[in-house]
Design goal:
- The structure is a single chain.
- About 20% of the residues lie in helices and about 20% in strands.
- By secondary structure, the protein is of the alpha/beta class.
- It folds into 2 domains: about 1-155, Distorted Sandwich (Spo0b-associated Gtp-binding Protein, Chain: A); about 160-335, 3-Layer(aba) Sandwich (Rossmann fold).
- The strands form 3 sheets. It has a 6-stranded mixed beta sheet with strand order 10-11-9-12-13-14, sandwiched between helices. It has a 5-stranded mixed beta sheet with strand order 3-1-8-5-6, with no helix packed on it.
């Protein structure tokens, strides 16, 4: 299945059905009263998250979604049936934004979450509705109310416990393939990875989801390279694993380049739990590994792990460390929710 993380679609809820003008006509009742029923309500437009989906590819081939119109009212006091709703099946982590691609309408993060985006138009009244003591035979009926319509953007931000970041060709896809059953494309040239990849990692009888995004370059937060769209996929990650190519000439500079992009992008990426690792150590001598590890530790201000995604050396250690950081990130998030819930609500002031 191809990966698509953004799509623009048109939505329209169903029109309400018109009311009916009708009079009761039966044997021995030549002048029966009004019995025209109301029209049915138009169908809503609903978005629902479906577990197991991780792409918006279905919206590339279909961009228009319309709820069914309500049926018209009928005689003998029969009301029209409501129009069927149309449901957008989206993956967890999907944001729905207005046509300006900035105003957030809904943020769907949990499987089974539903939100009504547009409500169908109300059905029109039949002449039975207008019967009164003074209007014994009204011939008035209303047309159905029109449905609503709008263009929206769907933007997918992957839900993962940890995210891989680094410059192009830092070995992120190789590590993902070594740590999980994911099969990303691997080659010895930059931007081999063109789409985010997800893999389920198993370590010490536990599991977590690891996301690999395309490599970042200087100016990525402004859309350079493969753009800043992919930075959004790590907004929801609790932990970042920052991989640096050990064979690069300036490992400290490479680290600072990526950190600068995370800080410039914002959205709290620079404040996330971070683990720094020197990759491709299988291609280096021990002295070179130690020298570059010290330079990277000085630039990052934190311990640096050494590993090789090709040989698997150090992979288990880094996965266990990731799992510990994920647990800490989850605990911090839970504590923040409890603290937010305990804070008194601010009084509204006009």
């Amino acid at each position: 299945m191809k990966f698509l993380d953004q799509a623009k679609i048109f939505l329209k809820s169903g029109d309400g059905g018109p009311g009916c003008v009708s009079f009761r006509r039966e044997r021995n009742i030549p002048r029966g009263g009004p019995d025209g029923g109301d029209g049915g309500r138009g169908g809503d437009v609903v978005a629902e998250t479906v577990d197991g989906l991780n792409t918006l590819i279905d919206f590339r081939y279909r961009q228009h979604f319309k709820g069914a119109s309500g049926e018209h009212g009928k005689g003998k006091q029969r009301f029209g049936a409501a129009g069927a709703a149309v449901t957008l099946r989206v993956p967890p982590g999907t944001q729905i934004l207005a046509e300006d691609n900035e105003t957030l309408i809904a943020d769907l993060t949990r499987p089974g979450q539903r939100v009504v985006l547009l409500r169908g138009g109300d059905g029109g009244f039949g002449n039975l509705h207008y019967k009164s003591a003074t209007a014994r035979a009204p011939r008035r009926a209303e047309p159905g109310h029109p449905g609503q319509e709008m263009w929206v953007w769907l933007r997918l931000k992957l839900l993962a416990d940890a995210g891989l970041v680094g410059l192009p060709n830092a070995g992120k896809s190789t590590l993902l393939a070594a740590a999980s059953r994911a099969k990303p494309k691997i080659a010895d040239y930059p931007f081999t990875t063109l789409h985010p990849q997800l893999g389920v990692v198993y370590v010490d009888e536990r599991e977590f989801v690891l996301a690999d995004i395309p490599g970042l370059i200087k100016g990525a937060h402004e859309g350079h390279g493969l753009g800043d769209r992919f930075l959004g996929h790590i907004e929801r990650c609790g932990v970042l694993l920052h991989l640096v190519d050990g064979t690069a000439a300036d490992v400290a500079g490479d680290y600072r380049t990526v950190r600068g992009e995370l800080e410039a992008y914002g959205a709290g990426l620079a404040e996330k739990h971070e683990i720094v690792a020197l990759n491709k150590c299988d291609a280096l001598e021990d002295d070179a590994i130690e020298a570059r590890r010290k330079a990277l530790a000085k630039a990052s201000g934190r311990p640096v792990f050494t590993l090789s995604g090709v040989t698997g050396s150090g992979v288990t250690t880094i996965l266990r460390t990731l799992l510990g950081e994920i647990d800490r990130a989850r605990a911090d998030a839970a504590a923040a929710l409890v603290e937010a819930a305990a804070m008194p609500a601010k009084a509204w002031t006009p």
